[in-house]
């Protein structure tokens, strides 16, 4: 290939790189179907039942709220209950005339005003029992109210303990220790173009059984303004995996794949999102967990692969998690899988020859594929 031809090819590649970079920036600002942390930016309007759905399943609602809100709600519940039962004790004392009665005629010992009634209510609800204030046999009503408050306090403590335990063992917290890579890559594996991404467990106790699922989400705006969302499952090589060490999830770009006819040039023009999930059972708690992530076209790096992070030591396998998200460049045809297969895969041993570098973008050409460009760039 002549030098002038090489320079023209490099200029074309760099122009394409900058164009794709601008498209990626625009795509990144668009609304995602699912955020990178697995949350869905969905807001319900005029949902059936409105707030009643949260009251019907109050336990789940308490588990899902933030810790500070939960502590605030339970603190207010205790204070309000003490005030209400204290008001009941004060009314009993007021009706009985305890403010002027002798100590032996009081319904509740040493309770003559609202302050004393509130303190007795707090001691009863918290089962403190200082002994200075106590209910007497002079009023059956006071005895009934004390019984009701004792049962209510036990039920409230049971709910508090259950919610706290459920929140501490929440699947969301465990899911934060299992994660996917920030990007997905496209490279050659056994002369087949493949889309792949990483999955790893950042804790010491490893997951011995889990299932991976991938869905392609497409959303198209209709002329009338409505939005149509379609879902399509993608085939991957291994769905059930053992996550003792980080693994790479692979989807082959073969006939039947919805990404088969997409190349690095028209990849950015297709609005889609890959929603990936890993469902597994925690070995310590036995609770079912799920970790989710999503990849848009802006998150797919063509012509790269993940850095090797697993090494073998004398007694252990060593995993360097600092390389979990790191990628490196590899020779990959700047073609869709469909074009790559129709033009014929290069024979084994064929190399992709680097012919130049400009503005940190590398352009490479495979001389056996009609001088088609192979573009490698940071997206």
From TrEMBL:
The reaction(s) annotated as catalysed by this protein in its Swiss-Prot or TrEMBL entry are: K(+)(in) = K(+)(out)
Domain Potassium channel inwardly rectifying transmembrane residues, every copy: 34-170
**Keyword Transmembrane assigned:** yes
Q: Where is the Inward rectifier potassium channel C-terminal domain?
A: 179-342
Q: Where in the cell is it found?
A: Membrane
Molecular-function annotations in GO: inward rectifier potassium channel activity
Lipoprotein as a keyword of this entry, yes or no, is no
**Ranges that cross the membrane:** 71-92, 140-166
Q: Main site of residence?
A: membrane
Q: Name one GO biological process term.
A: nervous system development
Q: Which GO terms describe its cellular component?
A: monoatomic ion channel complex; plasma membrane
The protein's UniProt keywords, in alphabetical order, are:
Ion channel, Ion transport, Membrane, Potassium, Potassium transport, Transmembrane, Transmembrane helix, Transport, Voltage-gated channel
Q: Which Pfam families match?
A: IRK (PF01007), IRK_C (PF17655)
Specify the protein's topology with respect to the membrane.
Multi-pass membrane protein
Q: What's this protein's family per the entry?
A: Belongs to the inward rectifier-type potassium channel (TC 1.A.2.1) family.
Q: What is this protein called?
A: Potassium inwardly rectifying channel subfamily J member 16
UniProt organism field: Haplochromis burtoni
């Amino acid at each position: 290939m002549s030098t002038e031809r090489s320079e023209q090819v490099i200029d074309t590649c760099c122009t394409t790189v900058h164009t794709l970079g601008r498209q990626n920036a625009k795509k990144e600002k668009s609304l995602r179907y699912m955020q990178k942390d697995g949350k869905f930016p969905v807001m319900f309007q005029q949902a059936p039942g409105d707030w009643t759905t949260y009251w019907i399943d109050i336990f789940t609602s308490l588990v899902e709220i933030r810790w500070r809100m939960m502590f605030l709600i339970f603190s207010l519940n205790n204070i309000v209950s003490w005030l209400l039962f204290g008001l009941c004790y004060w009314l009993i004392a007021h009706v009985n005339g305890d403010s002027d009665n002798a100590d032996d005629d009081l319904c509740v010992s040493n309770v003559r005003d609202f302050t004393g009634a509130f303190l007795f209510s707090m001691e009863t609800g918290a089962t403190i029992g200082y002994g200075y204030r106590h209910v007497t046999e002079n009023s059956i009503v006071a005895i009934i109210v004390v019984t009701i408050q004792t049962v209510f306090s036990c039920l409230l403590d049971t709910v508090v303990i259950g919610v706290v335990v459920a929140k501490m063992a929440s699947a969301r917290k465990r899911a934060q220790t299992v994660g996917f890579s920030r990007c997905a890559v496209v490279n050659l594996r056994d002369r087949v173009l493949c889309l792949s991404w990483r999955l790893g467990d950042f804790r010491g106790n490893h997951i011995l059984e889990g299932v991976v699922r991938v869905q392609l989400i497409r959303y198209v705006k209709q002329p009338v303004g409505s939005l149509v969302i379609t879902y399509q499952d993608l085939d991957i090589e291994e769905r059930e995996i053992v996550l003792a060490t980080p693994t790479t999830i692979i989807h082959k770009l073969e006939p039947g794949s919805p990404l088969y006819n997409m190349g690095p040039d028209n990849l950015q023009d297709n609005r889609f999102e890959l929603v990936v999930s890993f469902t597994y059972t925690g070995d310590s708690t036995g609770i079912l967990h799920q970790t989710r992530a999503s990849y848009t076209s802006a998150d797919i790096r063509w012509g790269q692969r993940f850095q090797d992070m697993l090494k073998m030591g004398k007694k252990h396998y060593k995993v360097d998690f600092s390389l979990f998200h790191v990628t490196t460049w590899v020779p990959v045809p700047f073609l869709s899988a469909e074009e790559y297969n129709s033009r014929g895969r290069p024979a084994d041993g064929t190399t992709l020859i680097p012919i130049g570098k400009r503005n940190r973008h590398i352009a490479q050409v495979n001389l056996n594929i009609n001088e088609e460009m192979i573009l490698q760039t940071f997206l």
